[in-house]
Amino acid sequence: MNALAAWYNKQIAIWAGIFGKNDIAAEFWVRAHQYQPQKPAMLVTAANHLALAHENAEAESLLRKSLLIDDTQAPAWFNLGFLVQKRDEHEEALNAFDKAIRFHPSLDRAHYGRALSLMALGRNEEARAALQRTVELQPMSPYGYYHLAVLQFKMGDEKAYRKTTRKLGSFEPKLAVQLQRETGIDAGVKDPFL
User: Fold this and answer.
1) Could you tell me which residues come within 8 angstroms of residue 171 by beta carbon, excluding any fewer than 6 positions away?
2) What is the pLDDT of residue 179?
3) Taking the CB of residue 184, how many other CB atoms lie within 10 A of it?
4) What is the mean pLDDT of each run of 10 residues along the chain (194 residues)?
5) DSSP 8-state symbol, 190
6) Other C-beta atoms within 10 Å of 68: how many?
7) Domain 1-70: which CATH number of 1.10.10.60, 3.20.20.370, 1.25.40.10, 3.30.428.10
8) What is the pTM of this model?
9) Exposure pattern of 99-129 as b/e (b: 16+ CB <10 Å)?
10) Integer Cα distance of 160 and 149 in angstroms
């Protein structure tokens, strides 16, 4: 009976999410979890919907609850890091991103989130390494390359900045042109709309 009730609540949650009713989707994911409490991923999904509904405190609470059930969930740690980062709690966000990476080393978004917190803390060398890891894992990461180039520019490494900006321009030329305008340094990327 519990499996059927969980299935029913999940179906409502899925359809509510499809129609953008994130508060309803979150409610029904939590209900489904009540029938299958050994599955904390349902709480993580509910938290995602709450975050989309701008209910960040409630989303964070569900993520922490899911981690009490199973603290090896990389998606829960990543999402927690993201929410904490939005509050400018960068040390705590780093801890969450590091745990996400420990349980899923190739989770490029966790490396990217880690880099953003490191940049906010002024730890530029570590941020640079995290961004390089991001683009290694996700070679088409426009914002990974963008932030890496910005950081290289700020650190005075113009050669690396130009190389990274050209790489970005190979698949996101508009963003690369924007970067050139922001820095005032031409890396040779032409605006595709001129």
Assistant:
1) 140, 142
2) 96
3) 7
4) 90 96 96 94 97 97 97 98 97 98 98 98 98 97 97 97 97 96 95 82
5) P
6) 10
7) 1.25.40.10
8) 0.91
9) bbbebbeebbbbbbbbbbbbbeeebeebbbe
10) 7
